[in-house]
Structures are given as C-alpha cells and as structure tokens.
Specification:
InterPro entries: Aldolase_TIM, BchE-like, Elp3/MiaA/NifB-like_rSAM, rSAM, rSAM_sf. By secondary structure, this protein is an alpha/beta fold. Helices cover 38% and strands 17% of the residues. The chain contains 10 helices and 10 strands. An 8-stranded mixed sheet has the order 1-4-5-6-7-8-9-10. Helix 2 (78-91) links the parallel strand 4 and strand 5 (97-102). Bound molecules: iron/sulfur cluster.
C-alpha cells in the first residue's frame, strides 16, 4: 500500500484496511492539532488509489472494514469518490463498513442526494470532530465552524443514513470556560443525536499554537479533576435517543463506556465516585494520544 506521511485513524479503526486517498487535512488550522502540520493537503491520484484497492483485494481478505485516510476524504469530488467506493464494492465485496473523517466544509459541499449515493455505495460511518459546542471556544481554536453549522452538518450526515461518530475534547476550553464548554457540548450533541460520541482529553503537542498559549500562561489546561468534572457535566447535559458515549481513549484519566440513555446514571455515579477519590485515575505517564 502507498502511504505518505503519518497515518492517523480513529481507535475504532484499529483492524480496518487503511486506504489513504488524501494526504493531510483540508482545514489544517485548528490551534490544538499537530497531526498534519507541515503536510500539504492533496487528493492522491486515481492510479495509486486503484492499485492499493487491487493490493487489498489480494492481501486483506480477513479485514471486513475499511477506513479512508487522511484528514478529510469526504472532500474528494463526488465523481472520483463514487469511483473509489464502486471499486471497493466490486473488488473487496467482503467489506462491511467503509468510513472516513468528515468536517463541516466537506459535508456542506455535498448535496443530500450525493451523501445518499455515497451511503448506498458503502460509506456508512463518518467521524466528525466537534471538539466543543461552545461558540467562543470553537472560534478560539479556529475550528472553522460554529455550533449551529456543526448541528446542521451533523444532522445532514444522519439524514443520509450515514452513522455519525463525534469527537469532543475535554480540556479544550482551558480552565476559564471548562464548565461552559461541557454544558454547551452536551447541548450540541443532543441536537445532533449521533450514534457514537468519543471524548478525548486534550494533550498539548509542542508544534501547536495551543501549546505555546499554555506555556506562555495565556490559557491554562485544566487538571485531571477539572477534566473529570467537565466529563460529568458534559455527560449529564447529553441526551441521546440511542447512542454510545465513550471516553476510553488512551488520553483519558477515567475510562468510561456508557450506552445512552440507559447507562447514564450509573456512569455519572462512577464519575462522582472518582471525583470523591473512590476510583483511581490513570497516572499521567500512562496517558497517550
Ligand atoms: S483537528 Fe481535524 S480539522 Fe482540525 S486541523 Fe486537525 S485534522 Fe484538521
């Protein structure tokens, strides 16, 4: 397979075929994100992508999921994306789920009919980085969309029958707006009602503006207790009709996995127990991105 630069994928795609169709991120301006800094966004040429699909057809017969990397595969023009998904369907018929990252810009560029067409060709899951539902925070981190746009685009994906997994970031609003961020994120998640929510805890990386703001004392990252309080407030404010809220990423201090709405109260009780010192938190040295 042809891989260029660092490859990133959601934790739930650990066993998927990783088909790199773009390099970098089409936005690449979020102040906390160092994933694609220094990488230029490109859509890979069709011949390379098709050769990788042929390779996967010969060598990846045991993997039944496929993830389209990198940053934002949904931004590929419809005709080319249809050709890629059609080739996957034809040459890898054992694939049960194709997924990709999606951001508000790329979702906006697709019509409802185009998204429906992609779903029919096998794209059944999209990962969207919300990070926060707080408009002040979204602006500060240069996310490129406000909460109303996030809600609109998240609902658009769901209306096309594509499942949605949303990532939120504990700690992203710094100490000052920690609780507002938690409440507002719960509001936006409830309005979108995704199938999956993944909460990560922010870990600052040195090649990002957010890291420099922290070391220069402009915005301070909340500590473990405050992040846990944030998680509790966020979960309490999140009302899903049926969804999985998990915070079991390696960056989190307390792993949780709650099926909503039924497991919400017991999970909140566990968070409260941890806040009261009755459940051990993950030590700092064991956290990872
Ligand atoms: S967080 Fe996502 S959208 Fe923002 S720069 Fe990183 S990859 Fe791109």
């Amino acid at each position: 397979m042809d891989y260029q630069g660092n490859i990133f994928r959601p934790p739930s795609e650990a066993y998927s075929i990783l088909l790199q169709v773009t390099t970098g991120c089409s936005h690449n301006k979020c102040t906390f994100c160092g994933m694609y800094k220094g990488s230029r966004f490109t859509i890979k040429d069709d011949a390379t992508i098709m050769a990788d699909i042929d390779f996967a057809a010969r060598h990846c017969r045991r993997q039944n999921r496929l993830f389209l990397c990198d940053g934002d595969a949904l931004i590929i023009p419809q005709k080319r994306l249809v050709a890629i998904l059609s080739a996957i369907k034809e040459k890898l018929p054992w694939i049960e789920r194709v997924s990709s990252y999606a951001n508000t810009k790329s979702i906006k560029m697709k019509s409802a009919e185009q998204l429906e067409e992609l779903r029919q060709l096998g794209l059944t899951l999209a990962y969207m980085g919300l990070e926060s539902g707080d408009d002040v925070t979204l602006k500060t981190i240069n996310k490129g969309a406000d909460s109303a746009q996030m809600i609109e685009m998240g609902r658009k994906i769901k209306a096309a029958g594509i499942k949605l997994s949303i990532t939120v970031l504990l700690g992203i609003a710094a100490k000052e707006r920690s609780q507002i961020h938690a409440t507002e994120t719960g509001r936006v998640l409830s309005a979108i009602d995704p199938e999956f929510v993944g909460a990560l805890s922010l870990m600052l990386t040195p090649n990002t503006p957010a890291y420099h703001e922290h070391v220069e004392g402009k915005r301070y990252l909340p500590g473990p207790q405050e992040m846990l309080e944030e998680l509790g407030t966020m979960l309490a404010a999140t009302h899903l009709s049926q969804g999985l809220f998990h915070a079991n990423h390696a960056s989190n201090y307390l792993p949780i996995k709650a099926r909503l709405p039924e497991e919400k109260e017991q999970t909140l009780a566990m968070i409260n127990a941890a806040l009261g010192g009755k459940v051990n938190l993950k030590p700092e040295y064991m956290r990872a991105l």
